[in-house]
């Protein structure tokens, strides 16, 4: 796993909200990053610089905060944008993947015709925590004929083990920055 040249700067703009949504949890709030035009530009540039030399057919972004980064990245790379949505949000024929959450299950979906066989995809979301959503989305892409070139996020919480699980499943991981629990 690697990080961006702007990683420390981006990290400094992300707000930590202690004890939210429950006591003992440090919530990493990306809202200040999105509200700061210079920081947001550096964030998007981090991804553009990473992927501009690769042959990428599409950016697939996970509902909903992944869309914030995925759409401008696809635009800058001159490739298509494909949303990976929560169950029941896509209007056409879909394929779905259910995964385990800390307190239950969730399902993500992708249009069945989202990719052509062999399409090269960057899969992006805002954060990697336990890795379940990213792995489910990567599985959907693979099942639809696409090839995940890399999974990417704004920030990684490595102590929760998600990035390690994603790497163990055979996917490369890129995060602009990471936080340990005591930061």
Automatic annotation (TrEMBL):
UniProt-listed InterPro entries: Ade_phspho_trans (IPR005764), PRTase-like (IPR029057), PRTase_dom (IPR000836), UPRTase/APRTase (IPR050054)
Protein name listed in UniProt: Adenine phosphoribosyltransferase
Keyword presence, Lipid biosynthesis: no
Gene Ontology annotations of biological process type: adenine salvage; AMP salvage; purine ribonucleoside salvage
Molecular function GO labels: adenine binding; adenine phosphoribosyltransferase activity; AMP binding
Reaction catalysed by this enzyme: AMP + diphosphate = 5-phospho-alpha-D-ribose 1-diphosphate + adenine
GO cellular component annotations of the record: cytoplasm
Gene3D superfamilies recorded: 3.40.50.2020
Pathway noted in the entry: Purine metabolism; AMP biosynthesis via salvage pathway; AMP from adenine: step 1/1
CDD domains in alphabetical order: PRTases_typeI
